[in-house]
Amino acid sequence: MSLQQFISKAVSPWLKEEAEDSDIVLSSRIRLARNFKEYPFPIVADSDKLKKVLEVFEDHFENQSIGKDAKLELIRMTDLEPIEKRVLVEKHLISPQLTEHNDAGAALISQNEQVSIMLNEEDHIRIQLYYPGLQLENALDYASKIDDWLEEKINYAFDRDRGYLTSCPTNVGTGMRASVMMHLPALVITQQINRMIPAINQLGLVVRGIYGEGSEALGNLFQISNQITLGKSEEDIVEDLKSVVKQLIEQERYARRRLMSNSSIQLEDKVFRSYGILSNSRIIESKEAANCLSDVRLGIDLGLIQNISKTILNELTILTQPGFLQQYAKKPLKAEERDVRRAALIRERLHLEKM
What we know:
By secondary structure, the chain is of the alpha+beta class. Among the domains are: 1-8 and 27-170, Glutamine synthetase/guanido kinase, catalytic domain (Creatine Kinase, Chain A, domain 2); 259-352, no CATH class. The protein is 46% helix and 15% strand. It has helices at 3-8, 47-60, 82-90, 96-99, 136-151, 185-189, 193-202, 234-262, 264-280, 286-301, 310-319, 322-329, 335-354; strands at 25-34, 72-76, 106-110, 115-119, 125-132, 158-159, 163-164, 176-183, 205-208, 221-226. Strands 2-3-4-5-1-8-10-9 form an 8-stranded antiparallel β-sheet, covered by helices on one side. It has a two-stranded antiparallel sheet with strand order 6-7. A hairpin with a 4-residue loop joins β3 (106-110) and β4. It is globular. The model has no long low-confidence stretch (mean pLDDT 90). It is an enzyme of class 2 (transferase).
């Protein structure tokens, strides 16, 4: 697979698969932070040392395969245009921090985009593994296999008492961040989410927006992840997160039933107004588009809208981001130009879906 294929398709192949609770949990992710024992960590290393890390992956892991559909292609940040970097960030294949790093930054990405291994970001190695729906255990199992595969060639920075050593102290221990991306519109509409987030934080978890730390929860999409990495096993971290996610799923389903029972006309009006905006707008900003797409997704889940698939909504959620809009335009766009193109793209895609 070429770089052009990674940046031309909005929806990663793994995201098209149906899975448990995928109407509320869009994805499960395991991220492992690792470092070479013999080289300074990226936050203090010079360019020559970081290039040695990259050379290890060029020599041993580039174009290698891990299981079915998992041939890894090495994408170097120095080979990318700014818009191409932004597209990969919007697809969650790399982080914003990696795009701003030195000339030794890179990522190994699998053909189905389920696996992404970032190199020389905050740590030498950031293994990311995605699954659709609530599949944290499967994601952990696969990530552990990749971790073992890398360790056959790499001597990790590890301490018997502290565990894996990382640039940020909050990752020391397992070096693992487990997270799920959840669509929680009913809890937002009923304002229950405002009291739930502080309670979740008290359990050692953190609630963030769609692009992680510092990002806004656009389109009622929330990322729930662990904060504690030291003193717990990977399995315990996953089990604790899964327990909270299960409760959130139950609360979201209950809130949806209540809305349908007590405020069905108002809810239908909200859903179909948003559908009308998406179908007819000539100018639409990214925040409004995200919120309208969330309403339509809820309408599909509740059976109010019959002729639109959630795969299309997943596609539009990514396609309407600034990077993708500019990638399709083949040129940088001003904010106003993006708003016009965003509206046109949504109209065209929804029209094709109904044909």
